[in-house]
Amino acid sequence: MINKLVEKIKKLNAPVVVGLDPMLNYVPEHVQKKAFDEFGETLEGAGEAIWQFNKAIIDATCDLIPAVKPQIAMYEQFGIEGLKAFKKTVDYAKSKDIVVIGDIKRGDIGSTSSAYAVGHVGKVQVGSKTYVPFDEDFVTVNPYLGTDGVKPFIDVCKEESKGIFVLVKTSNKSSGEFQDRLVDGRPLYEIVGEYVAKWGEEHMGDSYSYVGAVVGATYPEMGKVLRKIMPKTYILVPGYGAQGGKASDLKPYFNDDGLGAIVNSSRGIIAAYRQEKYAKFGAENFAEASRQAVIDMVEDITSNI
Q1: Is 70 exceeded by the pLDDT of residue 184?
Q2: Catalytic annotation, pick one of 87, 105, 151, 232
Q3: Distance between start and end Cα atoms, the chain
Q4: Cβ neighbours of 41 (radius 10 Å)
Q5: SS (HEC) of the chain
Q6: What is the model's pLDDT at position 287?
Q7: Answer CATH for 2-302 from 3.40.1160.10, 3.90.215.10, 3.20.20.70, 3.20.20.140
Q8: What distance in Å separates the CA atoms of residue 32 and residue 96, rounded to the nearest whole number?
């Protein structure tokens, strides 16, 4: 799957991923009203509103983007109905030939880690039948529990030709409380980066590993160091736009070939219609506003890397 992701990025000249992280208040009133008219102001109604919102954005941007990244917490908050919307979103994006990165940030050990992996990127056996539960192409993984927590994901990904992005240096302000701590004189995130590179050697695509890394756009100097530590690792870069990351800071995350990183924007794309810059579209044309925001993001990034 890493080969497909790289080829789509090259074909579209768009190293971007749209984060489908829909808070209900991002969904325009007319979309909510239609869903509530059908299902009431219920969890089912909320799930329907989010699904229709996502579908419209996918339809408006599918020819521009190589990947989407639904953040599962935004769906789990609505319980089972939210997870149904998550699954519909995954399936619909894949029907449009978009790579799906499930932002699940799971991290556990042994059979628990294996169960997470099977549920999201693998197959599960039910009697004599086999099912594919969520079926993302990649998932994000928290490495805090060490190799025991990561290896089950890699094992399943090898079977299914899928991949993971391991949290190395996250974009949030307090990430340094743990990630920047010195261990034998070196920041912990550098050591995690070395492990990611080592894990990736066991699961290589044509040019890049199926084991990627998450490195926030808000720390470009650290990104520069990690790029050298992980030359064959694809870097998923959150934090662009709304979190303060700028396109001018992104060059260190990429290799000399212009590949090696994919930059995420979530509310900057899906809630673009609420920004002054895109207000002319109005809430009725929220998906068109998202499309223009993607075009602007691609231009901004590609002109700076």
Answers
A1: yes
A2: 105
A3: 24
A4: 10
A5: CHHHHHHHHHHHCCCEEECCCCCHHHCCHHHHHHHHHHHCCCHHHHHHHHHHHHHHHHHHHCCCCCEECCECHHHHCCHHHHHHHHHHHHHHHHHCCCEEEEEEEECCCHHHHHHHHHHHHCCEEECCEEECCCCCCEEEECCCCCHHHHHHHHHHHHHHCCEEEEEEECCCHHHHHHHCCEECCEEHHHHHHHHHHHHHHCCECCCCECEEEEECCCCHHHHHHHHHHCCCCCEEECCECCCCECHHHCHHHCCCCCCCEEEEECHHHHCHHHCHHHHHHCHHHHHHHHHHHHHHHHHHHHCCC
A6: 98
A7: 3.20.20.70
A8: 24
Residue 239 pLDDT exceeds 90: no
Whether the Cβ atoms of residue 263 and residue 217 lie closer than 8 Å to each other = yes
Query: pTM of the entire structure?
Result: 0.95
Cβ proximity of 184 and 174 under 8 Å:
no
Residue 68 CB neighbour total at 10 angstroms? 30
Amino acid type, 160 = E
Task: Measure the CA–CA gap between 177 and 156, rounded to whole angstroms.
Answer: 32
Active site residue 158: no
- Region 235-241: mean pLDDT is 90
- Domain spans in the chain, listed from the N-terminal domain onward: 2-302
CA distance 146 to 196: 11
Reported confidence tier of residue 242, pLDDT bands at 50, 70, 90: low
Count of positions (residues) in the chain: 305
